[in-house]
Write a structure and sequence with these properties.
With 344 residues, the protein is an alpha/beta fold. The chain is 32% helix and 22% strand. It has ten helices and 15 strands. Helix 4 packs parallel to helix 5, helix 5 runs antiparallel to helix 10 and helix 8 packs across helix 10. The longest helix has 18 residues. The N and C termini lie far apart (46 Å).
Length: 344
């Protein structure tokens, strides 16, 4: 059984990501319709997929042949287009950000429940191999209690496309933030909601939104998570640094290193109030164990396709939805808090 799919928005995400991914799964999905105001883009799609084409979204969602709508339009239109698609009886994959405010995200979830149609959000970075490995090591308990996780997206570059403009829901927090915050919340856990610190600035962007974001998530029983997403760093640091009570992890999206020790291998110690020998500091040799590094491989390159493989299992075989809209609502809650705190 093929899921008959309509794609709204044929830009970077709609065309390069979504159309590309599902066209690699011809036994699972069929693109039967597309929608975009650009005539050249819809002609390109018609030539490639032999599908129906629409320039008007309202006409597009009336197409009874469509079972699943992929909303990859302007960020500012995600909520409106998702709600209309759900009300027209379609299941929906919404690009990130889920919406541009929490109120709209809640309305999207409520509409999904009322219509009985599935809603999910393309938080594909949950499938990223580096994140999966980080999560595996943390969850194993190998490096002990997690003290701090630093997640760094550093670059030095100007940007001047539509995603730099407030009127389209642009800005670094809305563009890149959902990926990083979503991963951060998976590590933070769901036992409590985080306290949030946020600082944002407009530095190099030619638009009217921020391109430098600093976020700290803190909880009583959860690890502190330190996020930096910036276009103003000419000395980029590695993407990951994880500090644990028995070890740690460092690395990039393509290479990770970790080392750890077993506390049982340390000699028993007690606090000693006597002067240290030779007025020195306490020193001991930690019996570190260092694993071979993890490296991004050729088979990892197409990891986002797993989103659509899992979605098919949900839609056709009734398996639990991997990325629920409720879990992405937490991302929207953090983003909204950040906007309020930073005043941007």
């Amino acid at each position: 059984m093929k899921i008959k799919t309509g794609v709204a928005g044929l830009g970077r995400s709609g065309w390069n990501i979504h159309c590309n991914l599902i066209s690699q799964l011809p036994e699972l999905y069929e693109i039967v319709a597309v929608c975009d105001p650009d005539e050249k883009r819809i002609k390109e799609a018609k030539d490639k997929f032999n599908c129906k084409t629409y320039s008007d979204y309202n006409e597009f969602i009336k197409d009874e042949n469509i079972e699943l709508v992929i909303v990859a339009t302007f960020s500012s239109l995600h909520a409106e287009h998702t709600i209309k698609a759900l009300k027209s009886g379609k299941n929906v994959v919404c690009e990130k950000p889920m919406a541009t405010n929490l109120k709209d995200a809640d309305e999207m979830i409520e509409t999904s429940k009322k219509t009985g149609k599935l809603l999910t959000v393309f938080q594909n970075k949950r499938y990223a191999p580096d994140f999966q490995k980080i999560k595996e090591i943390i969850d194993s308990g190998l490096i002990g209690k997690i003290i701090l996780v630093k997640m760094l997206y550093h670059s030095f570059s100007r940007r001047w496309d539509w995603q730099t403009l407030k009127k389209y829901g642009g800005g670094t927090l809305n563009n890149t933030g959902p990926h990083v915050i979503d991963q951060a919340l998976q590590i933070f856990g769901d036992k409590e909601e985080p306290e949030i610190f946020c600082h944002m600035e407009k530095t190099l962007t030619l638009g009217d939104t921020e391109d430098h974001v600093k976020i700290i998530l803190k909880g009583k029983s959860s690890p502190m998570i330190d996020i930096e997403i910036t276009s103003a760093c000419c000395y980029p640091q590695e993407n990951w640094l994880v500090m644990g009570s028995c070890g740690g992890i460092k690395g990039t999206f393509t290479q990770l290193y970790w080392k750890y020790f077993d506390p049982k291998d340390l000699p028993p110690r007690e606090v000693d109030e006597n002067p240290t020998p030779d007025r020195s500091y306490n020193v001991e040799n930690i019996p570190w164990k260092e694993e071979e590094k993890w490296e991004f491989s050729e088979k990892d390159k197409n990891y986002p396709i797993n989103f659509y493989i899992d979605l098919y299992e949900t839609l056709v075989k009734g398996k639990p939805l991997k990325i629920t809209p409720e879990s992405v609502r937490r991302v929207m809650w953090v983003i909204e808090k950040c906007h309020q705190i930073a005043g941007i």
